[in-house]
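Appendix B. Extra example for self-study. Work through it before the problem class; the solution is given directly after the inputs so you can check yourself.
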Amino acid sequence: MTFYTTVAEATSGSGDLLSALGINWQLLIIQIVAFLLLVALLGRFVYPWLMKSVDQRQKDIEDAKNASIEAQRAAQQSQKDGEALLDEARREATDIVATAKQEASDIVSTSEEKSRLVAERIAKEARDDIGRDVEAARKQLRAETLELVALATEKVVGKVHTKKPDEALIAEALKESK
Amino acid sequence: MSNLSITELSKDLRQAIEGLETQGDFDETGIVLRVGDGVVWVHGLRSAGYSEVLHIETPSGVVEAFALNLLEDEIGAVLLGDDAEVKAGQTVRRKGSVLTVPVGDALLGRVVDPLGRPMDGGPAIKSKAEGLVERDAPGVMDRKSVHEPLMTGIAAIDSMFPIGRGQRELIIGDRQVGKTALTIDTMINQARQNTGVVNVYVAIGQKLSKIARLVDRLKQEGVMDQTIIVATSSSDPASLLYLAPYAGTAMGEYFRDNGGHALMIYDDLTKHAVAYRQMSLLLRRPPGREAYPGDVFYLHSRLLERSAKLSDALGGGSLTALPIIETQAGDISAYIPTNVISITDGQIFLETDLFYQGIRPAISAGLSVSRVGGAAQTAGVKSVSGNLKLGLSQFRELASFAQFGSDLDEATKHQIDRGQRLTELLKQSQYAPMSIWQQVVSILAVTGGHFDDVSPEHIKEAQEALLSRLWHDEKKDMQELDKGAKPTETVLKHIKKAAESVSKGFKE
Amino acid sequence: MARRLSRRVVTSFVAERLQEGDKSVVKQLAAYLVTTRQIRMLALYVRDIESSLAKKGDVIADVTTAFSLSAETKKHINAFVAAETGALSVSLREHVKSEVLGGLRLHIPGKELDTTVQRQLTTLRTQLKKA
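Solution. Structure tokens for the complete assembly:
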């Protein structure tokens, strides 16, 4: 109420509202012009830069936000991949172990087979050696016997054979050789 | 095992005495004029033929010889036995035929001398057939081109210098570089792969201890049952050394002429030429270059021409020859080596330097060649060997730059790395021939780049691991691959996957 | 010095001259052998001359037996040699050696027939031994 009373008393004294309010309309116009000029200047030089900065900052914040989302996603994906690799590695390890076991068992059975074959071969060679020894002995005995037969024949024929049977022998030999 | 049965022996003796011929024949005879150094000069026998067998009657039995010099006044014959028993004045008769040896399946698994007499202590060879030691080679129309592979089991040979059935491939190198080892592995591979190829190994003037070791090894590997060994040692008369390769070829020809396949190994023809030179000089034949007689080329050409692939009309059999020549100080331009190189269908040259660098078999990829080539190669190996040869030849060109290491561009470094891996891959232990699928997989693993992360020192281990893995995981595919066909896309994928998996464990 | 000819050529010539009845060729041969220092080869020359004569129908046969031959046996041997060689004349040279034990060894130039017991025993000892 005091304000309105003051305003009524001021206007009633001069009859001018602006004057009553203490506002110099020239100064106001100048201030308005100055203000507009200021706004224009600000709008031309300050606000674009400011807005640009703000936009940039907003963009950076947005980017950072996106990046963090992306990083999170990548981290999740890496974790998944890691788990998948681990699974694969576990499977391969199982395979390798199984293969190694299989190979070891094959090696054992191959070695057993080889040993068996070697043993058989040694036994066969021993039998062959004995066979050869027997054959050699047989040959030697045969040779000795023939030698003795020839020697005995030589002795006997030398003493027993005479001219007449010899001539018959010669005649037969000539007849057979014709 | 035979028993010493006196009853049987007595029966045998009775039969021998009863069968003794009491009437002789009115044979043409001559007399020994002089004898020495394994050569006997005979007077008479004017109708004796060249290379005819003569029987010299000595107090301890008949000694055989064969007539090589038919002169106007006398015959020069080379003794096939000990000349200590032969004396001047002894009677000589003609056998009436040229030299033959027993041939047939009865010889398989046996060690014999060039006259077919057993040397392994076993019973006498009882064979129904006899083969001529000297015989004409098959004519042009009797032959077919070489098209079937003879797998040696040695990756370097089967991939780069493939040998076909009916081919003559010379193995040449200095002493102790692995020439005989190559041939032994080839023989073992015939048994391992059940190829049915009969091996005939002719040892010419070799140490008896070496032959004994060879026989032992072949028995261990189970190869002896399809092998014939014709053995002569350096203490045997030169005449036996001269005859050995011809006698062995006669034995191999039996299988060739009956639709089968045989592999002849002549170890070695250098000693054969030396024995022939000795004989010719003692027979007073005029010496030529390096004192060899003028027909020393013919000596080997008539031998090696008998190795051939026969036409289908004659049974399609084959006789493959792997003659061995020993050089002195790597000189392949000497007289005998050049002779044999010009006769054969290619050569595998073994270098001493490579051998001592640890590259065994020490095959020189640059100097070796197979003139039959891809025609006698399995499709599977053929499909992978192109890159192998290329890789190695590029490596050879760049090998001298390998020492510069980091100063080279990437492409050059890659070629050198690839070449080093291929060189390591082609190293192979003795007595370990590889089957077709093993060769294909191994070569593919390196040429396909799957082993690029494996250091060269670990290539052999990686190869072993890969082969083991594939044999267990993809056995059926590998058995299929072993038949020789080109690998399918599926098989290639399996190989690639397995190779990459194995290489992870050997990553540098 | 006389030019050296092959033994076959010389002996063929000598045989021809001998058949014509020219015995002086024997001295010429002796001189030739001395000049060419081939005295040691005399036995071979004689064999070759006998061989040439045999071709021309004059056969000289060496017979070795354990006992001396009767006339009938000699006749048989002559007939045998003539039949085998187509010879016009056959001369026998007898040798008696008890070590042959029995049978005969008949040798003509270039051929031999040996049915002696000694040979059969040698065959028994040597060839059958190796069977």
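Self-check: Chain A has a mean pLDDT of 83. If your reasoning did not lead you there, revisit section 3.
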